[in-house]
Amino acid sequence: MSLREVDPEASRIVELEKKRQKETINLIASENHASRAVLEMQGSIFTDKYAEGYPHKRYYGGCENVDLLENLAIERAKELFHAEHANVQPHAGAQANMAAYFALLNHGDTAMGMRLTHGGHLTHGEKVSFSGSLYNFIKYGVNRETERIDYQEIEHLALKHRPKLIVAGASAYPRIIDFECLRNIADKADAKLMVDIAHIAGLVAVGLHPSPVPYADVITSTTHKTLRGPRSGFILCREELSSAIDAAVFPQMQGGPLPHAIAAKAVCFHEAMQPDFLEYQKATLNNALVLAAELQRLGLRLISGGTDNHLVLVDLTETGVTGIQAEVTLGKAGIVVNRDPVPFDRRSRWVTSGIRLGTPAATTRGLGPEEMKRLAELIVRVISNIDDTTVAAEVKEEVRQIATRFPVPGIDD
Ligand SMILES: *Cc1c(COP(=O)(O)O)cnc(C)c1O
Questions:
Q1: Domain final residue pick, 237, 272, 307
Q2: pTM assigned to the model
Q3: Is the pLDDT of residue 412 over 90?
Q4: CA of 62: how far to CAs of 55, 56, 67, 362, in Å?
Q5: d(Cα 335, Cα 345) in Å, to the nearest integer?
Q6: 225 is catalytic
Q7: Ligand 1 centroid distance, CA of 408 (Å)
Q8: What CATH number is associated with residue 189?
Q9: From the alpha carbon of 197, which atom of ligand 1 is closest?
Q10: 52, 84, 109, 398: the active-site residue
Q11: What tens digit of pLDDT does each residue of 364-405 get?
Q12: Are 144 and 281 part of one and the same domain?
């Protein structure tokens, strides 16, 4: 029996979500639209299977097909990123990071990570996350003037605090990260280097952002952001760390893996090796450049003055509008974004002074430079008329007209 027949109430909510996705434009930098193939695999009968352990070393019978799929995912991940070892079992990005820490650190050890308010992630040592409570994280950030990562500060802090691990990677940083420089700093401080490419994995896969693989001891990632796969995570590392990483994922951190998610990761890695994935990532970058240039032309201030990647961080301080106001009102206008702290933000993390905009999802639907220019105008119009519900309603109608011209994978194909 179909979902609609079994559970009309839940099914109706899926229809509401389809309508929402079709009629709005998603500029959340960490989201994307997975392909029908990925969705099909993630909804497949591999949901039913227990497969604790690793291929050919399982604690359950009947794993021969899961073994095939997990090995396929592993081999594809290694090929895609030119890595020596891959673990495709972490349930999500946070779990990938937890396993990496379990493999590399003991409780109480000192590590370094980027400050959340400067673009870092919760799991890079924030106190409210396991990472900040289990380990002693020293935080680094961006330079106040350039708003780019301050590598000199990182070196200074690393030599002073002698961390066992330096964590790089970010959730809201619009610039290229210099992994070679970080490797040199880690070597000077006798630290290991972990790079979390959750956001930029798709760009790294096609060579549009330098790869950390030659430099980092461990690389962690999600699969659902620029990589456009299922909601999940994975880890890459050098051969000598493979046993430690695998043991940290299972049995230390997780029980049974999610075979349906692993299967969908295999499909995602396959899609990322196809020529059109490179074209997609190029279009994502170009859309971000056009969006950034147009927002600036219309008077908004961008952190670091622009972007090298798929996202822009807008500092709304001078407009008098808060991040939360902008997020809520743009949402009413059909433009889905998230608020984000800007570096040295004086507002609380709940309110914030910024919004983060990303192009991966809109580019997947086929929106191009023309639409980005128009979106920039509409965003500025909403922010300049933040209390005017008529403006929001007008913009919403225009956004709906634009959005419905572009199909959503998994809904319209
Ligand atoms: C999104 C993100 C994560 C966490 O991923 P989840 O799948 O939400 O657990 C980890 N690190 C960075 C840098 C991220 O941007």
A1: 272
A2: 0.97
A3: no
A4: 12, 11, 10, 41
A5: 24
A6: yes
A7: 24
A8: 3.40.640.10
A9: 13
A10: 52
A11: 999 999 999 999 999 999 999 999 999 999 999 999 999 999
A12: no
